[in-house]
Structure formats: C-alpha cells, structure tokens
Write a structure and sequence with these properties.
alpha+beta; Heat Shock Protein 90; Ribosomal Protein S5, domain 2; 4 domains; eight-stranded mixed β-sheet; 22 helices; elongated; binds adenosine-5'-diphosphate
C-alpha cells in the first residue's frame, strides 16, 4: 500500500472527519468530474478526428446496491491510466480543487472545511460519505484497466483489473448511519434524484439511473385488490439544457416565469426577466429577474443578495454576492460562465473574470431598467415603488461613488400632479435661466404642496420634487447637481429673494432684531419674506444642514445629536400678524416675547417638526388670545 503525502493526508483527514454539514455535494463533485472526463474525450475525438465518438453515446450512470451499501457513478469518458490514477488521485496536491489549500496545509483547521466546501472539494469529498472508495478506470485507447482503492488516510493501492469499456466507475461504500448523519439516505432513489436536480440538472450529458416504476392496474385488478407491480427502468434525471442556454426565441414567457417561480420560490410572476448572452472579453449567459414585489426582508439586515453561479452547467454556489452591487440586490437569477478550466472552483470568488462579469451584469441591469423607464413606464413606476429606496441608499452609502450608475434611475413624485418624474424629465422642463431643481421634504405629496413657499413656486409654474423618504435629501446631496442645475430645498432661507424685501428688512431691522433676541439660540435670524404668500410665518434654514436633515439625524438609532440647522424665522410682511407685531413692539415690549415664541412654535408645528414644550405653548396661546 502506498501512503498519501503528509499534506494530502491532513486534508483527507479533515474531509473524512468533516464537521461540514453539506456532505451531499460529493455527488455534484463526482458527477462533474465525469462530465469533465467525457468532455475531454469528446474534444479529443473532434480534434483528432476519431470516428465513432458521437455525442449521443456519452452518458453518466448512477447505480445503487442497497444490500452492499454501494453507490456507483460511472462515465464513458476519457478514463485514467495507472499512472494517471496514481498522480490524479494519489496526491491531493495535484488535484486542482485542493491545490490552494495544501500550500498552507500547516494552518488548515477543522473549520476551514466549510471554506473548501463552499466551492467544491473534488474527488476526496467521496470520503465524507464513504469509508471505502474504488475507482475502476480504463483510459481511452488502452488495453488494460486499473483499480485504485482506498479506505481513507491509510493510503491507497493501484492494481490491474478487468473493465470492458473506456471510462471510469467510482464505487462508494457508503458509511454506516450515525446519530448525526443518516448516510443511508444516499442510497435512496429520491435523494439521488433530488440531488441531481439540485446540483447537476444542467450537466450537458444525460445522468441516467435505474429507477423503480409501477405498472398501472386495470380496473378489474383494482377491484381484486391487487398490488401494483414494480419494475425498473433507466431514466435520465437531468434536463441537460438550461433555459438560459436556449435562444430567447425558443423560450416562452410562461417558461421564463415558471422557471423563476420554481427556482426562487416566489408565488408571483416576476416583473421582468433579462436574458443575456455575452461573448467577448467575458463570456457568460445569464437569466435575471426583477421580482414584482419587494421581498419581505429586502430592507432588513438579514437579506442576502446574490445570483446562482454555474460554470459549465454545474452549480458552484447558490448566492454569489459578488455578482451584484447592493443596490441591485433585489435581482434574482442565474449566471453561467465558462470560466477558464485552470481556475479551480474555490478560487472563483477572487477571480478577475467574476469581477468582469459582475460589472457587466450591473450595466445590463441598469440599461434594462432605463429601457423600462422609457418604454414601459407603468412597470417602471411599480419597480421604483418597490426598490427605489434601495437605489437611493445605494447613492447615499457610497458617498456618491455610484452616482453615474444611479442618477438616471431615480424618480421623485411631482408636487404638480403626484406622478413620478425622473431628474431628466424635470430638467427638460426648465428654461435656460432656471438654475434650480426645487424639492420639498415631507411625508406626503400634499404636505410638500403645503410647505410655506411651495405655493408661490407652484403658482409661478415651477414644479417641486417631493422627497418623501428620509434618505432622499442625503442621497441627493451626493449628487449636488444634475445637468448643471442645483438642487434647492424650498425651505432654504435664500429662496427667491426680491429687492423690495431687502429694503423692507432694512427698514424693520429694530423689531426683527428684538424678535431674534426673544428667541435666543433657537434661531439664527428673523426676517420678512413676501414670498410666503398667504402664510403668516415659516421657518427656513441657511447653510448645509436643512431642517429635515436635523430631524432625520436626531431620529437615527444611536442618534447624531447636536447637528443643528441654522434656522431662520420668516414673517410675512403682507399678513395682519406683522401689523400686530409692530404694535406690540411699540406698546408692550414684554409681550413681544410671547408673540415671538408663539410664532416660532406655530412655524414648527406647521412644518410637522417636533416640539418639546407643547403644553406650555398652547397655554400661552390661550393666554394671549384671552387678553
Ligand atoms: P478537480 O476536478 O478539481 O481537478 P478532483 O479531486 O475532483 O479535482 O479530481 C482530480 C483529478 O482526477 C481530475 O483533475 C481528473 O484529472 C481526475 N479525475 C477525477 N475523476 C475522473 C473521472 N471520472 N474520469 C477521469 N478522470 C478523473
């Protein structure tokens, strides 16, 4: 008996005593080795013009012998010579799958096994479920066959054996059941069937198994109470051609939708599917879906984004997160790429190709969404209603790094008609002289319309974007401007000042200063603004921090205290209240403080801002009007 190299032994030991729960992937590994072996022979045949090798003759077969507790996986591929058995299976370091680990074999710890298992563990995964493995193999074109046999870490033997045809039979002697693992499951027809469906459905060669079937009973037989007779029949367990590898014209909407529902467990059909086939600097096919409803935990911490990743029809991982940016995390789908053969399955994560595919997919999604926005507006509105918030967070959380990708996808409700408008549409309606994109922050469109200065803006024909989500203003700060137009909060202090107001403010400096003194630190300034139209009083802000930003920051978990807006109390000089104030200022300076406080309080309330002294203030109002 030959022993494995020390490094190999260590890895093998881990595999055998694996605490790794996903033992079932051994079947995926062995089946994909079979598929590779057939590929090799098929291509050799093509290259060397060997006759008699037709694609239809190739198959992978699975056979169960419950009595002997064996599971046999066979292929009629290229096979291995004695030397190849020795070098491919005798030294783990030679195996592509584990090469990366053996370099650091000293550091391999028990829990590393989950890292290995994530992408594939190769041939040795057989030892997770079997205590003895036999490999009968006959290389194509060779006269003799050989048997490689091993019971695990002890070592292995290679000796001549009898085998009729080229290819490889791998016989697994399935382990006895333990308290933790029911290995017998792997001898069950339905387990095999479901594992093949789950992991290897799209392998390009048929995976056949003898399955049990039952003869139908005639009515008479049923009456007699006869039991149905069973018989076995060879059946192909995999569908072989995945939907995404077909031409778009070959696939119906129903098939697209059905695949989505089956694969991603959604009851609703998707809002849209995106079927792409890319050839060039990267090669991949993808079938992507936008769900029609927001997944219940989409905005929660535990939501896991990702696409199913296949290479060459073999499932590598259920959720490859690297393929999607967070803000497109709602996309479900499958990516199949012929990643170059020398990339072993584990290192795919870091692969440059994968990154390229990811950024390519990102572009595709963006373009599809823009296309939907242009040509299927109702659908896009629905999409944005569900996932727009995530796009805005994407813009905000990347400090605007994703601005180019996201800015054209954004929409806000228009104060004019309550419908969604894109930034582009808003700007298209502006004249050359217009410098600003106006927005108002509030809970509803009506509340934005009711903001003090909305009235005069809307009357002058301007539209106002309604920022209804807390993140909106922060996200837009990351953009700063759009097509040369600056974003402007309608509650900014410097919103459309006119010369008359300036004069008026100078003339009334005394009273305004006095009101400011009454309010102390609460406001930075008090001024007269005739653009308040019918409203008596309002608050605005100067500088970077707006009133709404102050509100949002103070309500954030772990609150950002002390970030304050520089508030300006604005009084309408055309409202009766101004005459009253002037009177009080001249006649009863003490009473002016009450008036100032009531004005400030009312302004806050009318903007929906929080007040912390409501009882005191309402009493004050009653006092004043009782006089
Ligand atoms: P990987 O497939 O990642 O290279 P494995 O440990 O699964 O690593 O397999 C090691 C090698 O053994 C393969 O690269 C291949 O050369 C050979 N091999 C495994 N299974 C078969 C098979 N069914 N037919 C022919 N060669 C095989």
């Amino acid at each position: 008996m030959k022993s494995f190299k020390t490094q190999s032994k260590r890895v093998l030991d881990l595999m055998i005593n694996s605490i790794y729960t996903n033992k079932e992937i051994f079947l995926r590994e062995l089946v994909s080795n079979c598929s590779d072996a057939i590929d090799k022979l098929y291509y050799k045949g093509l290259k060397e013009g060997i006759s008699g090798l037709t694609r239809n003759d190739f198959a992978i077969k699975i056979k169960v012998d419950s009595e002997k507790r064996t599971l046999t996986i066979s292929d009629n591929g290229i096979g291995m010579t004695a030397e190849e058995l020795e070098s491919n299976l005798g030294t783990i370091a030679k195996s592509g799958s584990l090469a990366f680990k053996t370099e650091n074999a000293e550091e391999i710890k028990a829990d590393d096994i989950s890292v290995i298992g994530q992408f594939g563990v190769g041939f040795y995964s057989a030892f997770m479920v079997a205590d003895k493995v036999e490999v009968y193999s006959k290389a194509f074109g060779s006269d003799s066959a050989n048997l490689w046999v091993s019971k695990g870490t002890e070592g292995y033997e290679v000796k001549p054996c009898q085998k009729q045809d080229n290819g490889t039979d791998i016989v697994l002697y399935i382990k006895k059941d333990t308290d933790d693992d029911k290995f017998s499951d792997f001898l069950q027809e339905h387990t095999i069937r479901s594992l093949i469906k789950k992991y290897s459905d799209y392998i390009r060669y048929p995976i056949k198994a003898e399955v049990t079937k039952y003869k139908d009973l005639t009515d008479d037989e049923k009456k007699e109470g006869k039991q149905r007779e069973s018989y076995t029949e060879e059946e192909t367990l995999n569908s072989m051609t995945p939907l995404w590898k077909k031409n778009k014209s070959e696939v119906t909407d129903e098939q697209y939708d059905g695949f989505y529902k089956d694969t991603f467990y959604d009851y609703e059909k998707p809002l849209k599917h995106i079927h792409v086939s890319v050839e060039g600097s990267v090669n991949y096919k993808a079938l992507l879906y936008i769900p029609s409803k927001t997944p219940f935990n989409y905005y929660g911490k535990n939501y896991e984004k990702g696409l199913k990743l296949y290479t060459d029809g073999v499932l590598i991982t259920e959720k490859c997160a690297d393929l999607l940016p967070d803000y497109f995390g709602f996309v479900k789908g499958v990516v199949d790429s012929e990643l170059s053969l020398n990339i072993s399955r584990e290192t795919i994560q870091q692969s440059r190709q994968l990154k390229l595919i990811g950024s390519n997919i990102e572009k595709k999604i963006k373009n599809e969404l823009l296309d939907m926005q242009k040509n299927e507006r109702e659908k896009y509105d629905e999409f944005f209603q569900n996932f727009g918030l995530g796009l805005k967070y994407g813009l905000y959380s990347s400090y605007g790094l994703n601005a180019e990708n996201l800015k054209d996808l954004l929409m806000f409700k228009s104060a004019k008609d309550g419908k969604f408008v894109t930034l582009k549409e808003y700007v298209e309606n502006l004249s050359k002289e217009d410098k600003f994109i106006y927005y108002g922050t509030a809970k509803t469109v009506d509340a934005v319309k009711n903001l003090p200065k909305s009235e005069s803006l809307l009357e002058s024909g301007k539209d106002i974007l309604c920022f209804l989500d807390d993140v909106d203003e922060f996200a837009i700060k990351m953009l700063g401007e759009y097509q040369g137009k600056t974003f402007k909060n309608v509650l900014s202090e410097d919103l459309s000042q006119n010369d008359d107001d300036q004069k008026l403010n100078q003339e009334n400096d005394g009273i305004l200063q006095e009101i400011k003194n009454c309010l102390g630190e609460k406001v930075a300034k008090v001024k007269l603004s005739s653009n308040l139209k019918s409203r008596p009083v309002s608050l605005s802000s100067e500088g970077e921090i707006t009133l709404d930003m102050e509100r949002v920051l103070s309500t954030m978990p772990g609150g950002v205290e002390g970030v304050k807006a520089q508030k300006v109390l604005e009084i309408n000089p055309n409202h009766a209240i101004f005459e009253k104030l002037k009177k009080v200022y001249l006649e009863d300076k003490d009473a002016l403080k009450d008036y100032a406080e009531i004005l400030y309080f009312s302004a806050r309330i009318s903007l929906g801002l929080e007040v912390d002294n409501s009882a005191e203030m309402t009493d004050k109002i009653i006092d004043v009007i009782s006089k």
